[in-house]
Design goal:
The protein is mostly beta strands. The chain has one domain: UDP N-Acetylglucosamine Acyltransferase, domain 1 (3 Solenoid). The chain has an 8-stranded mixed sheet with strand order 2-5-8-11-16-19-21-22, with no helix packed on it. A 6-stranded parallel sheet has the order 1-4-7-10-15-18, with no helix packed on it. The protein is globular and about 60 Å long. The structure holds coenzyme A. The site of coenzyme A has 14 residues, from strand 21.
Length: 189
């Protein structure tokens, strides 16, 4: 494993980071903010983790829990703050975008309008399908599922299954040990 410890503030026990992961961060280290990766995580090749300049982005921070898997080619922004819980699965080519560009004033270039930021929270046991986009300021509730190719513009409730652009609830995860669920299983309800 390549030694990323000079770039990442902490890497937990048993976590594996593939070769060819890109980290974009500058400014103060030891500010209490940075990139913190938990135990037993697996980060595949080709992903970019971006915080920007910690001195200029007051909310920039990225805290990733334990047993998190991030598949190939993801773009993970913690510029507006990002919290990822435990046992989260992130499919290939997912974009998590906690920052954007101000754009509304048409008399100015978008490049001159600065950035916008808002924290993203991804709770435990969430699965984000390949190619999805998670926009700034959203929360993915515990145990929810995001279908492949979806765009998250609003909060997702715990255990909801959402899909599409913008993502909408298509079903709910169930308690398979629940008496009613077992009874209705033959009918696949
Ligand atoms: C979300 C998902 C898990 C749901 O699977 P499922 O429970 O078998 O869902 P269903 O096939 O019963 O679909 C229910 C409805 O949602 C729609 N739907 C399912 N996934 C969708 C998606 N990703 N985007 C848009 N619509 C979707 C279906 O077309 C269906 O619509 P209908 O009722 O009008 O026919 C699955 O479709 C998916 O997107 N998996 C992601 C796979 C992936 O990214 N793998 C990478 C490895 S991490």
């Amino acid at each position: 494993m390549k030694d990323y410890r000079e770039i990442i503030d902490s890497v937990g026990e048993g976590s594996h980071l593939a070769e060819g992961i890109d980290f974009i961060r500058s400014g103060s280290k030891n500010s209490g903010r940075g990139i913190f990766l938990g135990d037993h995580c697996y980060i595949h090749a080709g992903s970019r983790f971006i915080l920007g300049n910690l001195d200029e982005h007051p909310h920039a921070n990225m805290v990733i829990g334990n047993f998190v898997q991030i598949n190939w080619g993801c773009y993970i922004s913690g510029e507006g703050g990002l919290v990822i819980g435990d046992r989260v699965l992130i499919g290939p080519n997912v974009c998590i975008l906690s920052a954007g560009h101000g754009y509304i004033d048409k008399t100015k270039l978008i490049q001159e309008q600065g950035l916008t930021y808002a924290r993203i929270v991804i709770e435990d046991d969430v699965w984000i399908g390949g190619g999805s986009v998670v926009l700034q300021g959203t929360k993915l509730g515990k145990g929810c599922v995001v279908g492949g190719g979806s765009t998250i513009v609003n909060d997702v409730p715990p255990y909801a299954v959402v899909a599409g652009n913008p993502a909408k609830i298509i079903k709910w995860r169930k308690d398979k040990n629940n008496w009613w669920s077992r009874l209705l299983r033959p009918f696949r309800l």
